[in-house]
Amino acid sequence: MILLLTVHHSRASDIERPDLLVSTPSVPLESYRDGFGNWCTRLVAPTGAFTVSTDGILRDAGLSDPVQTDAVQHPVEHLPAEVLSYLLPSRYCETELLGEFAWKNFSGPMSGWQRVQAVCDFVHNHVRFGYEHSRPTRTAAEAFRERVGVCRDFTHLAIALCRSLNIPTRYCTGYVSDVGQPPPYAPMDFAAWMEVYLGNQWWVFDPRNNDTRFGRVLIARGRDAADVPLTHSFGQHQLTDFAVWIDEAAEAGPSA
C-alpha cells in the first residue's frame, strides 16, 4: 500500500509533535517524496485486520484562509512554466467536456478572484453533498450531470471549470477543522479543496464549504484525486472503519 497521511512539508516548521505513522500489527515503513513533493509511506499490509494511525500537534496562527479579492488572472502566455500542467485535463477533471459551459457562464466582465469565486458559488449550489453519494470513479463531468457527491466531487468540478477558463488549479487533501465554526459541529473528515494561481501565487478555495475556515492542515497536492489518494492498494482490501479528528489544544499552564 501507499499512504498519503503525513502533514505537508510546507507546515514542517509548525510541527510541535511529529505526526508519526503507526501500524498494528507493526510492519516496516518506507517513506519517499512523490513527483509533487508529497511525503508518502509505502508498506506491505499483512493478511487480516490491519490498522494505521497518525497523531500530532501543530502550531497554527489562528488565521482564516487568506483572501485577496483583487488577485488577477494571468494570460496563459505570462504564466510560469511550472504551473502550466495545472491547466491541462486530468483523470477526474475533463476540461474538454466542460469548457463550453465554463466560457458561456463565467467569461463576462468578472475576472481573477471574482471569477473563481463565481465558479465556487455555482458548484456549491449545483452539487448536493451526501456521504451516501460517494463513488470513487465519479468525474467532474459526471458530478456536473448527477448534481450529487462528496467534497472531492465538488473540488473536481470546480477545478475542471477553472482550468477551462485558463486558471491553473490544483487538487489538495488534508484536514478542515471546525475551529471558529458555530455549533452544531459536523463530524470531522479528511477533506478535499483546491488552490488556484492568481496574482503570482496560489490561493485556497473550498467549493464544498464555501465559507471562512480556520486551522486548515494540508497533507498533499496533485492534479486530482488520482495523484493523491488517501490510500492506494495493490491488492484486495476492505475499509472497515475510519476516524478523523482535529481539535484546538488547551493552552499550557505555567510550569511548576
Automatic annotation (TrEMBL):
Residue ranges annotated for the Transglutaminase-like domain, each copy included: 143-209
Superkingdom of origin organism: Bacteria
The name this protein goes by in its record: Transglutaminase family protein
Upper classification of the organism: Bacteria, Pseudomonadati, Pseudomonadota, Alphaproteobacteria, Rhodobacterales
